[in-house]
Amino acid sequence: MNPYSNNKKVKNGGKPSKDEYLVPNGADNSSPTNILVQYNIPEMIEDYLVELEIRNYSKNTIKTYKSIVTNFYKFLIKEKDLYNEKRVLRSFKRYIQYLKREKQVSQNYIYLVTVVVKKFFEFGGLRILDDVQTPKRTKSLPKSLNETEVKDLINAMDLDECSNPSKNLLNIRNKVILALLYSAGLRVSELVSLHSDDVDLGERTIRIRGKGEKDRIVLFDENTKLLMEEYLEKRTDNSDALFVNRFGNHLTPRYVQMMIKKYAESAGIKKKVTPHILRHSFATHLLKNGVDIRAIQQLLGHSNLSTTQIYTSVDMQTLKNVYDRARLM
Predict the structure, then answer these.
(1) Domain stop point among 93, 109, 138
(2) Is residue 326 part of a domain?
(3) Has residue 79 been placed in a domain?
(4) Which of 76, 136, 257, 290 has the most CB atoms within 10 Å of its CB?
(5) Edge-to-edge strand order for the sheet containing 215-219?
């Protein structure tokens, strides 16, 4: 029996077909009950989010999943005659149509909504979307920065002379953030979660707790090491976190995103620049310089090589150069 329903099922307790009505205890079959009444969807959502946290999903992922299932539930509330699974399925398809036509969301978001809602229903013991095919994702990639653009971005505020020590420290901190996102290929969620004892300056390594609670070791270059040493020497807070705001708390991914946008504008870079694009540029430049893709996979923390191959899209000339250096014949 589904834990979120107090209702008995028709046909002597057997599972109803998608066309059969589900009726509450004590009611006759002539009074079909709306599925949203029959099942406690808000409680299912709450329990689902708890389950995601127990399974070590990231805070950003949980926030995204919560938004998706909550928005779908709000849409269902406005629907009529949700008396059986077939009608809920029809409403889901209308919701996808609404997202495409009215909200004009991306194909990748449609993919994510489908996956998340299916998982949510499965968690609640409902097989409503079992027959729904997961749509294809588009494989468009963000444009990477070239090496010169990366240097311009990191050094964007060097000309901003200031006698204010706190502002100078802020500039140094931001420069370290940019350098690490690129030279270590970090996800922004990984960067804002760093603690000082995760860093080994002597070895130029950082211990990262990545997706799925998987640890890995990443490297950073000598220039980033020098910046890090300067930052650690000048910082005045006592926080264990490596990067903090003025209240001594971890920075948020949103802050880092806005900071990078500001630096990109100052550097005169016309491309959209995000933490992910710096990570993508890191992988692309490594491949361009002949680093084996499996080594890149390890540095990025990918479970599957196919994911790394998507990140490291390079032009044909770069592939030709790598091919020629291999000297196959």
Answers:
(1) 138
(2) no
(3) yes
(4) 76
(5) 199-200, 205-209, 215-219
Domain stops at, among 119, 138, 157: 138
C-alpha R_g of the chain:
25
Tell me the per-residue pLDDT of 189-220, one tens digit each, with 9 for 90 and over: 999 999 999 999 999 999 987 665 678 899 99
CB atoms within 10 A of CB 65: 21
Q: How many domains does the chain have?
A: 2
Q: Which of 249, 252, 247 is nearest to 189 (CA)?
A: 252
Q: List active site positions.
A: 187, 211, 276, 279, 302, 311
76 to 16, 50, 69, 181, 329: CA distances (angstroms)? 21, 22, 10, 41, 63
pLDDT digits (tens, 9 = 90+) for 43-97: 999 999 999 999 888 888 899 999 999 999 999 999 888 888 888 999 999 999 9
52 and 28 both lie in a single domain: yes
Range of the domain at 73: 1-138
Q: What does the H/E/C string look like for 299-325? A: HHCCCCHHHHHHHCCCCHHHHHHHHHH
Whether residue 135 contacts residue 107, with contact meaning beta carbons closer than 8 Å, is answered with yes
Nearest to 127 by CA among 47, 24, 53, 16: 16
Residues 125 and 157 in one domain: no
